[in-house]
Design brief:
The complex is a heterodimer of chains A (351) and B (614). Chain A has 351 residues and is an alpha/beta fold. Chain A has a single domain (23-321), classed as 3-Layer(aba) Sandwich (Rossmann fold). Chain A has 12 helices and 13 strands. Chain A has helices at residues 38-52, 68-71, 90-100, 112-117, 120-128, 173-179, 193-205, 231-237, 287-299, 317-321, 333-336, 340-349; strands at residues 60-64, 81-84, 105-111, 133-139, 142-143, 149-150, 184-189, 209-215, 238-240, 242-247, 262-266, 272-277, 303-310. In chain A, the strands form 3 sheets. An 8-stranded mixed beta sheet of chain A has the order 2-1-3-4-8-7-13-9, sandwiched between helices. In chain A, strands 10-12-11 form a 3-stranded antiparallel beta sheet. The longest helix of chain A has 15 residues, at 38-52. Chain A is globular, with a radius of gyration of 21 Å. The termini of chain A are far apart. Chain B is of the alpha/beta class and 614 residues long. Chain B folds into 4 domains: 4-28 and 508-603, Alpha-Beta Plaits; 35-116 and 468-504, no CATH class; 118-221 and 371-435, FAD/NAD(P)-binding domain (3-Layer(bba) Sandwich), CATH 3.50.50; 223-368, FAD/NAD(P)-binding domain (3-Layer(bba) Sandwich). In chain B, 28% of the residues lie in helices and 19% in strands. Chain B has 22 helices and 24 strands. In chain B, the strands form 7 sheets. A 5-stranded parallel beta sheet of chain B has the order 3-2-1-4-16, covered by helices on one side. Chain B is globular, with a radius of gyration of 27 Å. The chains are: A alpha/beta (351), B alpha/beta (614). Chains A and B meet through helix 1, helix 7, helix 8 and strand 9 of A and helix 20 and helix 22 of B. The complex binds flavin-adenine dinucleotide (FAD), thiamine diphosphate (TPP), iron/sulfur cluster (3 copies) and magnesium ion.
Chain lengths: 351, 614
């Protein structure tokens, strides 16, 4: 952590976005995490993504649970809404908030302990309900905040800092998210912002449940030889299936790519996800094939990253429930209490 | 294994092109250049080092650092041309540079009696005799450097007091006599042999006295004249600026007419007009051929003149002096405009508009200064070029005659005090080596020290918090009081509180970011925290191209890129030094100590045993 606040001065030619904000305007308080923590890089990537998308800070709600990862919303988007909930309960709070006000951009920030250990049930239901959100797990394989115990995503056979081996099988959150119906699923690495920033942008623009599993080394407790979540290990085993560029609004393609290596996905809001294929046979539209592919590569010791699955015309919880377009918290008394006659008519439907 | 970042390698990164080599931080120039102010200072004064001492209230220590480098801290703290300030990083990071010059004055104003800390000439002389011709800042610097080494120094000047143009030209309202006397006195206390009050008319005669070396610091004493119609007829009220200022300094001139026109746009013109305002001039105006921005005077000198109610008229070329009954009545000017050719060269061409006549009682001509060496014989091995300037080696300061050295305005034409001092130091090194039979072209390296400032996990031995204050203004005496007496100093200087605030604006550019490649785990923490986007991890390539793809493109080619060895991922760390705040956040956030903040102290070698090889 750092005692000195980051100086207000910034680069004299720091660009501004359409709203007139610089990237620095999307920062939060100075981080109190350990120096070098992967989580700080993810915060920087979120800042970059929101800056590039010209997002109005007051249109974002950041929600988190408990853990070093769950502390990070304090360190980005200092002018956005925030809710630091109970351990593992972020998904329920987020679901409730989203139901009350569908107009905000929901960013759920969690850890592997928060989501795969104590909060696994909450995670599962939030995903399967298709809540329109960006759900990021900052995955370091340990409970960083409580000094480095193995979490439920730690690989079997990996070793903790004192050399003790983990004997439990890991929970693969990407596999679960696919199986539970998430409509935008990605994996990335805190040490590769070129990959991570576009994936976050795509997730923000996605209408539906977007899930990103971001491997994020814990420099204090899980960055040693024997760890499978260390900088060195992830760099050596990282297999990206594709590279993403996100464009809003639609802009002409300027770069030249070999035919058949680029695919464009037009999302709900006409934003364009341009995918450059790295693994020739990988199809991010086939949920079942994706699940099989991931399991095969995982068995081969690889960490597959990239945009793993996307459903461009996805629906969300509000679509399923048929709620009104207007946010519930903005409805007037007259709309919420239509009167005794309306109640009578309603009750009559069930007689 | 796929290094994912390699996918994004720009097409420009062609392996056949030259790639950036790792920075050699053992070359003292590398970190020296990062300390922009010190690098820009001709005498290489360790600026941030003394500013920190001022902030700590250690004024005497701050003074001594200055005194060692630039010999005249109290004088320069009021009058220096301050090449350091336009170079100051703060000016690029925010709007205005740190008020370096006026902080120097604070050290001088607030110090204790430092005489006990000054070097003393040894009882045992070294037997070498050196003549210094002219007692301006250049010669005085040579004297100060050589006297403590045991040299017998003889100081010649035509004026009765030492100080050169610092005494005869710079008006007292900018530089009080007490300050001048004190700092010149420190050198005279080292007891050079003084031959003041008589002019040297023959260098041959001086050489005949058998000196081991001779230094010529005779300045550029001749003011340029303006030969336009009416010059002769109205001569009684037309004065050459520097002669007039000397007359004022010596007290021979105490009055001037009510309406005064000063011709010229340099600092001499500014001193002439401001002096006139104090000697009876009420309608004083400066008239310049060029535009306002192209005037030679420093911006602050122009500001000070205008503050005293002196208008500056631009684009007017003097055409004739008008006179009646043998008395000056005014000046006729032709209106001109600036024209630029396709090479960007400027010429001033008449606009064809009607001429302007300005009435006045006196004219001061301040259109330039020239060297003159009528007293140097041309047959004694000292070669001059076709402009009448001596051929002088810019490093050793030696003329074409071994053992005869030049410095200050005499060497390369009119400059300023700090350049005279810098020349003096280098000439003293040369003289010392020359007198000991050494090759003067072998220059001694600077004394360099690089020390970590880390004290604890979040503790540094320097104050790394960045002040957001804008440049503080130096308080001035009220105008009506200031204009009453030509000896009243106009600037009051910073008080201790303002000095502390201004000192906080210094970025400590001498506390260097030092990178150790093999410790870096490429976690990006430093990249993310850096408030100025200085740091990038990227693929190697040719410099021009790498500069364009940094986190913030490095468009200032005068500022270096700090380049690491190849890292584990095959990338390099590139830091653009341009706008680094030296805040140390990169080092605080680095988990492995790959970044450290280390204080770089460079002292230029001065004459003495350390500069000699034997
Ligand atoms: C009006 C004016 C204002 C200035 N203001 C500033 C300022 O604010 N800041 C700044 O940095 N610079 C200023 N300068 C410039 C600065 O004064 C000079 O650059 C500096 O003094 C040069 O130092 P020097 O040692 O080379 O020579 P000088 O200071 O010129 O000293 C030369 C000495 O040699 C003597 N001398 C010359 N020939 C002989 C001879 N034959 N025999 C005996 N003695 C001789 C002269 O009498 C003189 O005392 C100003 C100059 C002028 C004209
Ligand atoms: C209900 C409850 N149980 C246990 C804890 C203790 N606790 C705090 S953080 C944490 C684990 C956090 O791990 P993770 O979500 O991976 O975050 P990290 O610190 O690794 O980023 C635990 C178990 C708690 N705060 N609340
Ligand atoms: S303990 Fe680990 S996860 Fe927590 S801040 Fe430190 S490095 Fe990051
Ligand atoms: S000291 Fe480090 S963090 Fe601070 S501006 Fe310089 S490079 Fe950036
Ligand atoms: S913080 Fe340190 S270890 Fe991390 S990338 Fe920067 S220099 Fe390397
Ligand atoms: Mg964790």
């Amino acid at each position: 952590m750092t005692y000195l606040a980051k100086p207000k001065l910034h680069h004299p030619r720091l660009p501004t976005n359409k709203l007139g904000y610089t990237r620095r305007d999307y920062e939060g308080a100075v981080s109190t995490l350990c120096a070098g923590c992967g989580h700080d890089s993810i915060s920087a990537a979120i800042i970059e993504a929101c800056f590039e998308l010209d997002i109005e800070p007051h249109r974002v709600a950041k929600l988190s649970g408990i853990g070093c990862s769950s502390k990070t919303p304090t360190y980005f988007l200092g002018n956005s809404h925030g809710f630091n909930s109970v351990h593992g309960r972020m998904p329920s709070v987020l679901t409730g908030a989203n139901l009350a006000n569908r107009d905000l951009i929901y960013m759920g920030v969690s850890g592997d302990g928060d989501s795969a250990s104590i909060g696994l049930g909450q995670f599962a239901h939030c995903i399967r309900r298709g809540v329109n959100m960006v759900y990021i797990v900052e995955n370091n394989g340990v409970y960083g905040l409580t000094k480095g115990q193995f979490s439920a995503t730690a690989d079997k056979g990996s070793k903790n800092k004192r050399g003790v081996m983990n004997t439990d099988l890991p929970i693969d959150l990407v596999g679960l998210a696919l199986q539970l119906g998430a409509t935008y699923v990605a994996r990335s690495f805190s040490g590769d912002k070129k990959q991570l920033v576009p994936l976050i942008k795509g997730a923000i623009l996605h209408h539906g449940a977007a899930f990103i599993d971001c491997i994020s080394p814990c420099v204090a407790f899980n960055n040693h030889p024997g760890s499978t979540k260390s900088f060195d290990y992830v760099r050596e085993h990282n297999e990206a299936v594709n590279r993403l560029d996100v464009m809003v609004p639609r802009e002409p393609i300027t770069a030249d790519y070999a035919a058949g290596t680029v695919e464009e996905i037009v999302q709900h809001d006409s934003s364009v996800l341009r995918l450059r294929k790295l693994a020739a046979d990988y199809d991010p539209h086939d949920r079942i094939a994706a699940m099989a592919y991931l399991q095969q590569r995982q068995a081969a010791g690889e960490i597959v990253t990239g945009l793993l699955y996307v459903e461009e015309s996805a629906q969300d919880l509000h679509d399923y429930l048929g709620t009104v377009d207007k946010p519930l918290n903005a409805l007037s008394d007259a709309e919420l209490c239509p009167g005794a006659e309306a109640l009578e008519a309603f009750n009559a439907m069930y007689r | 294994m796929t290094d994912t970042s390699v996918e994004d390698r720009p097409t420009g990164a062609d392996a056949s092109k030259p790639r950036l080599a790792p920075t050699d931080i053992r070359n003292p120039d590398y970190f020296h250049k990062v300390v922009d102010c010190q690098w820009a200072c001709p005498a290489h004064t360790p600026v941030p080092e003394y500013i920190r001492l001022i902030a700590a209230g250690r004024y005497s220590d701050a003074y001594m650092i200055n005194w060692k480098s630039n010999v005249f801290p109290g004088i320069l703290g009021r009058t220096c041309d301050r090449p350091c300030e336009p170079a100051c990083r703060r000016g690029r990071v925010e709007t205005d540079p740190v008020a370096i010059c006026r902080l120097k004055r604070v050290a001088a104003d607030n110090k204790d009696d430092i005489r006990a800390r000054l070097p003393r000439p040894p009882a045992q002389k070294n037997g070498k005799r050196v003549a210094l011709i002219g007692a301006g800042p250049a010669s005085l610097t040579v004297a100060r450097d050589l006297l403590p080494l045991g040299y017998h120094v003889v100081l010649f000047d035509q004026d009765p007091h030492a100080g050169g143009m610092m005494r005869t030209q710079i008006p007292k309202f900018r530089l009080p006599e007490t300050v001048l006397d004190e700092e010149v006195g420190y050198i005279l206390d080292m007891q050079p042999e003084l031959r003041l009050g008589h002019r040297v008319d023959s260098l041959k005669a001086v050489l005949a006295e058998g000196f081991d070396a001779v230094f010529i610091g005779s300045g550029a004493p001749r003011g340029r004249d303006l030969g336009i119609p009416g010059r002769k007829e109205a001569a009684a009220n037309i004065h050459i600026g520097i002669d007039w200022l000397a007359g004022v300094a010596f007290g021979h001139i105490t009055r001037i007419g009510r309406r005064v026109i000063v011709l010229g746009g340099g600092n001499t013109a500014m001193d002439c007009c401001r002096s006139s305002r104090r000697l009876g001039g009420e309608d004083v105006r400066v008239v310049v051929r060029s535009g306002f921005d192209e005037m030679k005077a420093s911006p602050w000198e122009k500001e000070d003149a205008m503050h005293e109610g002196i208008p500056i008229h631009n684009y007017l070329a003097p055409k004739a002096f008008t006179h009646a009954n043998g008395r000056l009545t005014g000046v006729v000017f032709e209106k001109v405009a600036a024209k630029y050719d396709d090479k960007g060269r400027r010429t001033l061409v008449p606009t064809g508009e009607p001429d302007v006549h300005m009435e006045c009682d006196d004219v001061l001509i301040a259109i330039g200064q020239e060297n003159a060496f009528p007293w140097i014989e041309r047959d004694i091995g000292i070669e001059f070029d076709r402009w009448g300037m001596p051929k002088v080696d810019p490093v050793t300061m030696q003329s074409t005659r071994p053992g005869v050295f030049f410095g200050g305005d005499a060497a390369f034409g009119p400059k300023n005090i700090i350049w005279a001092v810098a020349h003096g130091h280098q000439a003293a090194v040369s003289i010392d080596k020359f007198c000991h039979g050494e090759d003067i072209r072998e220059r001694p390296p600077p004394n360099v020290n690089l020390v970590s400032q880390k004290m604890g996990i979040h503790e540094w031995s320097y104050d790394n918090e960045i002040s957001l204050d804008k440049r503080h203004k130096v308080p001035l005496r009220e105008l009506d009081v200031a204009l009453k007496d030509i000896r009243t100093e106009v600037e009051l200087g910073f008080d201790r509180r303002l000095a502390w605030l201004e000192a906080q604006r210094c970025l400590n550019c001498d506390v260097q970011t030092v990178f150790t490649s093999n410790l870096c785990i490429e976690c990006d923490a430093c990249v993310d925290i850096c408030p100025m986007d200085c740091i990038t991890f990227t693929e190697n390539g040719p410099e021009d191209e790498v500069r364009t793809r940094l986190k913030a493109p490095a468009i200032n080619p005068t500022q270096a890129l700090y380049v690491s060895d190849s890292l584990k991922t095959g990338r390099i760390m590139v830091k653009d030094e341009d706008v680094c705040l030296h805040c140390g956040l990169c080092a605080e956030r680095c988990p492995t100590g790959a970044w450290d903040m280390q204080k770089f102290l460079l002292e230029t070698a001065q004459a003495g045993t350390a500069c000699r090889s034997r």
